[in-house]
UniProtKB/TrEMBL annotation:
Belongs to the DHHC palmitoyltransferase family. It is an enzyme of class 2 (transferase). It catalyses: L-cysteinyl-[protein] + hexadecanoyl-CoA = S-hexadecanoyl-L-cysteinyl-[protein] + CoA. This is Palmitoyltransferase. It is found in: Membrane. One of its GO terms (molecular function) is protein-cysteine S-palmitoyltransferase activity.
């Protein structure tokens, strides 16, 4: 069976959160960008006043709009730093976990550095994302959509 083209699984070719709410927000964002490009371009072409400034303004606005659209799509389709399913701790992380376990007061029952939802290793600063069902490194700088 061929791996999926889009998704949040480890074997998907392109990262894409297939959540209905997120996809509708992403489509709305793209529609706003493209419709504003269409409206402003039409208005500038019809009422630009002629001269050399109109084509220059039109080109500059459409270039910025195109860059915004492409940047949004690239951010949407790139892996945010999901932890691979077969990830193993580095030697320094194992030592840090051993020292933390020896100094622990005993009230914590879950092992630090292990995700009980993914059943896999979770590096420092990684948190489980319930939308994509994966652990994401530096999740404080991440939006699934």
């Amino acid at each position: 069976m061929a791996p999926p083209l889009f998704g949040t699984s480890a074997d998907a070719r392109f990262w894409l959160c297939l959540d209905c709410c997120g996809l509708s927000c992403a489509c709305a964002s793209q529609a706003i960008i493209l419709s504003s490009m269409y409206a402003v371009s039409g208005d500038l072409a019809a009422h630009g006043g002629g001269g050399w400034a109109t084509p220059l303004n039109l080109a500059a606005f459409n270039a910025v709009g195109l860059l915004a659209s492409v940047s949004h799509l690239r951010a949407m389709l790139s892996d945010p730093g999901a932890v691979p399913k077969r990830a193993t701790p580095l030697a320094r992380d194992e030592e840090r976990a051993r020292l933390a376990a020896s100094a622990a007061s005993g009230y914590r029952t879950r092992a630090k550095g292990w995700c009980h939802r993914c059943c896999s290793y979770k590096p420092p600063r990684a948190h489980h994302d319930s939308v994509t069902n994966r652990c994401i490194v530096k999740m404080d700088h991440y939006c699934p959509w």
